[in-house]
Amino acid sequence: MIDEALERTSVTVVFVTYGTKDRKYIDYEIEQSLARGNGLVAVQIHHLKDKDGNTGSPGAIPSQIEKNGFKAYKYTNSEDLSKWIEEAARLAGK
Fold first, then answer.
1. How far is CA 81 from CA 23, 52, 54, 68, 89, in A?
2. Whole-number Å distance between alpha carbons of 74 and 42
3. What is the rounded CA–CA span in Å between residue 56 and residue 64?
4. Res 94: pLDDT
5. Helices H / strands E in the chain, number of each
6. Quick one: what percent of the chain has pLDDT higher than 90?
7. Rounded mean pLDDT, 46-67
8. Contact 75, 46 (CB under 8 A)
9. Reduced to 3 states, what is the DSSP secondary structure of residue 14?
10. What distance in Å separates the CA atoms of residue 61 and residue 18, rounded to the nearest whole number?
11. Left, alpha or beta for 81 (phi > 0: left; psi -120 to 50: alpha)?
């Protein structure tokens, strides 16, 4: 499923909250993205309210993000997200 979802993509956005780095397939998703030459951007979303008005706890950024020259941000708005995605594409040479 992950391999199919990565087809025809140039940037992978990893949404981060508590426990993300421990998810079963997160390392695979990031490794496959890097193997395809995708840019990466991590976006923390723990501060956003869910349908019940609750927020989560911050999670650790997967180490492969910064280790490969990419960046992590705390979500602010869709315009900033678009800029971060474009930046990740440039960093990947796309």
1. 23, 24, 22, 19, 12
2. 8
3. 23
4. 81
5. 4, 3
6. 87
7. 93
8. no
9. strand
10. 10
11. alpha
- pLDDT tens figures, 7-31: 999 999 999 999 898 898 999 999 9
Q: What is the pTM of this model?
A: 0.89
30 contacts 64 by C-beta, under 8 angstroms: yes
37 Cβ neighbours under 8 A, 6+ residues apart: 92, 93, 94
End-to-end C-alpha distance for the chain, whole angstroms: 24
Beta-carbon contacts of residue 38 (< 8 Å; ≥ 6 apart): 6, 9, 10, 11, 12, 92, 94
The answer to whether 41 touches 72, Cβ cutoff 8 Å, is yes
Higher pLDDT, 20 or 88: 88
Distances (CA, A) of 3 to 24, 32, 41, 91: 15, 8, 18, 22
Cα angle, residue 55 at apex, residues 52 and 59 outer, rounded to 5°: 140
